[in-house]
Write a structure and sequence with these properties.
- The structure holds two protein chains of two kinds.
- Helix content of chain A is 82%, strand content 0%.
- Chain A is built from four helices and no strands.
- Chain A is elongated and about 50 Å long.
- Chain B is mostly helical.
- Chain B has one domain.
- The longest helix of chain B has 28 residues, at 76-103.
- The two termini of chain B are 32 Å apart.
- The relative contact order of chain B is 0.15.
- Classes of the chains: A mainly alpha, B mainly alpha.
- At the A-B interface, helix 3 and helix 4 of A face helix 1 of B.
Chain lengths: 122, 144
């Protein structure tokens, strides 16, 4: 959970968040590029979560496995829900929805790392 | 964030409560509905006896966020009333619980969404009801 993949996801999400906030502040609706970039981030998150799920069958489980799994599901669902809502809202607020989602994803990844570290001690 | 409402051109005055800024609110309320109720559920199932008051409050907070989300989602007069009630309850809740959690640490041995004015959630729980109430006020039905 602490690998370069997490770091890459967090950085990508923060960069994209900055971009979407900028777009929103300039009164721009989400473009195809914005939606595609968020989708790509979503794919990165899926890979991260698959790695984490595989890790669950590796012996050392987090102390709060239920919470961990809950966070995994939430994390995966984030980008698709944001894209869905952003497409319904072709205004600056759509861009802001993408921006907010991209800000929350790093928090979720950090929380996942926190929960995972309680048992594994990494 | 400079939150000037979108120009009238791309947002008709009679547009639904759930569009524009409302859709963003809906998204954020949805996140908190999930975060608060999932947290409460885990706390109540796994170690309810440790801090019953805090966990029950977590549960109530979760329900309030769910109500606000539903209110914003369905819109109309009914949705507006639901959202107005839940945003008000939420504002009172975060202020009362936030104050109590600082004044009387013993009553809140474990955190809730509203503890210390929601500091565990970037103070978003404190700011959110203001945005919610502002949006509902801004979007009140006109007389004509």
């Amino acid at each position: 959970m602490n690998g370069p993949l997490s770091v890459a996801t967090i950085i990508a999400a923060l960069v994209l968040a900055l971009w979407c906030l900028l777009r929103s502040s300039r009164n721009r609706p989400p473009s195809r590029f914005d939606l595609a970039a968020t989708a790509a981030l979503g794919v990165l998150v899926i890979v991260l979560v698959v790695v984490a799920v595989v890790g669950l069958f590796d012996g050392s489980r987090p102390a709060e496995t239920g919470t961990f799994v809950g966070y995994l599901i939430t994390t995966v669902a984030f980008a698709p829900v944001a894209i869905y809502l952003a497409r319904l809202e072709p205004t600056r607020w759509g861009s802001l929805i993408l921006g907010v989602a991209c800000l929350v994803i790093p928090v979720l990844v950090l929380r996942l790392q926190q929960i995972a570290s309680v048992t594994t001690g990494v | 964030m400079s939150d000037s409402p979108a120009p009238a051109a791309d947002r008709p005055a009679d547009a639904a409560l759930r569009t524009g800024f409302g859709r963003l609110l809906l998204f954020v309320y949805g996140i908190f509905a999930l975060a608060a109720s999932a947290r409460a559920l885990v706390q109540i199932i796994t170690h309810f006896s440790e801090a019953p008051l805090a966990y029950l409050l977590s549960g109530v907070a979760g329900l309030v966020y769910i109500a606000a989300t539903v209110g914003l989602a369905i819109g109309g007069a009914k949705g507006r009333r639901i959202a107005l009630t839940s945003c008000s309850v939420e504002l009172i809740g975060v202020l009362v619980v936030g104050t109590l959690s600082i004044a009387d640490v013993g009553a809140f041995p474990d955190d809730t969404v509203w503890s210390r004015y929601g500091s565990g959630y970037g103070y978003v729980p404190l700011v959110l009801p203001f945005f919610g109430l502002w949006w509902l006020w801004h979007h009140r039905p006109s007389k004509d």
